[in-house]
Design a protein that fits this description.
Strand content of chain B: 15-25%
Helix content of chain A: over 70%
Shape of chain A: flat
Oligomer: heterodimer
Radius of gyration of chain A: 23 Å
Distance between the termini of chain B: 43 Å
Number of helices of chain A: 8
Order of helices and strands of chain B: EEEHEHEHHHEHEHEEHHHH
Strand order of the largest sheet of chain B: 5-6-7-3-8-9
Mean pLDDT of chain A: 86
Number of helices of chain B: 11
Structural class of chain B: alpha/beta
Structural class of chain A: mainly alpha
Largest sheet of chain A: 2 strands, antiparallel
Mean pLDDT of chain B: 94
Strand order of the largest sheet of chain A: 1-2
Strand content of chain A: under 5%
């Protein structure tokens, strides 16, 4: 999945715009439906939608070039094509990233890291970063509730809202920093610094399709690179 | 045999106006339960951190004196490596002690032995046994994030128990546990001490430790104020001076004694420590 995500991210910027990114995004959408990751695709659309609109307005409203009327707006065709390419890139990368996040099994990943003899620290750092997102969100929600219970209001003028962010972000950041210290101590007592190869708890399956995809993605990226350079 | 030896140990955290530990000299024996007792800021947690080699390295500050843990210096790299998997450290907040990467309780408990490179068969046997002893075998397939605070604390303790440590350092380990959990923990620590491990518990729960600990070390402003068998130390007036706490019954007896001046003989030190002692005294 890392190979696919990395490959898609590189291909999205290597393939010629706007057709390349659009075709790639269509392929990613189709693939996500086939492998049962339709929910990730939908979430990616929800995340990207405001950015797509922003891109269309920003690039479409740029002056000059051939114009296209869409409702009351006169938009640049070149700008719209650029917005389409950027939007498709964004959509493709967001979809594969969310699918990776949704299907990511940290234990299995660390087992794979152990089996291959890769650096446990690097693997742990990656996993802990990915796992930190829901923890961060949970803690933020708790602090928000606590501050609301203490009378903090998040409505009103932008200045008032900006001021309300301070009692939210400060405990969040300080709490996370303090947790990092405690977690570092706890991890040390659990042998993460041991200078021995980590035991893989269960051998992660590595099927033929897995291996094919893992090799195919770099080949595809390389082929696209050569094609673009030659073209 | 001495499991932990402090020789003139002082610790001052960065920016702190005073020492957290001041000239501590102590020997903690293997095969026994020692109890660190004191008010907030007395230095109990700091003493555990220093014994584990975690402070001042993680916290910042300066350490003076000599610490020897299981024959090693935990404040040197070689000593820390030699101690890997031999010292169990349990904090009051179970959430932060999780690996953060395990998808199941079983994997969480297996995290440390896997890091130490144990063979998988040994890990499996140790994890199954530890989860069973903590009464959480039925949670083995659950995600740690889906557990209650009490269940999490049991998982954290099980994750240390798998290592069969020679030294237990526990900082308010029962804070998240219910009554059954506390009873289970007390029994577990008793068995661990009988196995030969040194158990050091920092807690304010005098009622629980009275039965469990062979020795109480009362700290006051980072110094050893009292040291002896819990029954002797807790029954005296001095523990109130240094820790402002004793067992519930001792506290009641002391408070009742203050209603009269001078207090009646039955309510003078040594105070009764348990309900049965109190009844025997007042009957």
């Amino acid at each position: 999945m890392f190979a696919v995500t990395g490959g898609i991210a590189v291909l999205a910027f290597l393939l010629p715009a706007p057709r390349g990114p659009v075709v790639l995004y269509a392929a990613v959408l189709a693939l996500s439906l086939v492998v049962g990751e339709g929910r990730s695709a939908l979430r990616a659309i929800r995340v990207c939608l405001p950015l797509w609109i922003l891109l269309a307005l920003l690039l479409g409203l740029s002056p000059g070039g051939e114009r296209q009327w869409i409702g009351p707006l006169s938009l640049s065709r070149g700008g719209l094509a650029a917005a389409l390419a950027q939007g498709a890139r964004l959509g493709a990368v967001a979809t594969v990233s969310l699918a990776l996040f949704a299907g990511f099994d940290p234990s299995r990943f660390l087992d794979a890291v152990a089996e291959r003899g890769w650096s446990f620290h690097a693997g742990y750092l990656l996993v802990a970063t990915l796992q930190a997102v829901p923890r961060f969100r949970h803690r933020a929600a708790m602090i928000l509730e606590a501050q609301r219970a203490r009378g903090l209001r998040f409505r009103g003028s932008p200045l008032r809202r900006a001021r309300a962010l301070v009692p939210l972000t400060l405990p969040l950041v300080l709490g996370m920093l303090s947790e990092v210290d405690d977690r570092a101590m706890a991890l040390e007592t659990r042998g993460v610094d041991a200078r021995v190869p980590r035991t893989s708890l269960r051998s992660p399956p590595d099927s033929l399709p897995d291996r094919i995809i893992r090799w195919a993605m770099p080949v595809l990226v390389l082929a696209a690179l050569v094609w673009r350079l030659a073209g | 045999m001495s499991a932990v030896r402090f020789a003139g140990v002082s610790l001052r955290y960065s920016g702190a106006p005073a020492d957290a530990l001041g000239g501590i000299t102590l020997d903690i024996a293997s095969g026994s339960v020692s109890w660190l007792f004191g008010s907030l800021g007395a230095g109990c947690s700091s003493l555990l951190l220093v014994a584990a080699g975690l402070a001042p390295r993680h916290s910042g500050g300066t350490l003076a004196g000599q610490v020897t843990t299981l024959g090693e210096n935990p404040h040197e790299t070689a000593g820390r490596r030699a101690l890997a998997g031999r010292v169990a450290y349990v904090m009051a907040t179970p959430g932060v002690q999780l690996s953060g990467v395990a998808a199941t309780v079983w994997d969480e408990a297996a995290f440390a032995p896997a890091n130490l490179g144990w063979p998988i068969a040994r890990i499996a046997a140790a994890v199954d046994a530890a989860l069973g002893r903590l009464g959480i075998a039925h949670l083995a397939a659950r995600h740690p994030a889906a557990l209650s605070g009490g269940e999490l604390q049991r998982v954290v303790i099980a994750s240390m128990l798998v290592l069969a440590p020679e030294l237990w350092l526990l900082d308010e380990p029962a804070s998240a546990l219910d009554r059954d959990g506390r009873r289970l923990l007390a029994e577990l620590l008793r068995v661990e001490a009988a196995r030969g491990a040194a158990v050091v518990v920092a807690t304010e729960d005098a009622d629980a430790m009275l039965e469990l600990a062979q020795r109480v070390i009362v700290l006051d402003h980072g110094r050893v104020a009292l040291d002896g068998p819990p029954a002797n130390v807790l029954a005296g007036e001095a523990v109130w001076v240094h820790a402002d706490e004793s067992t519930t019954v001792a506290g009641l007896a002391r408070a009742a004694g203050r209603l009269d001046s001078p207090p009646p003989p039955a309510l003078r030190p040594p105070y009764p420590l348990t309900v049965s002692e109190g009844l025997a005294r007042w009957r």
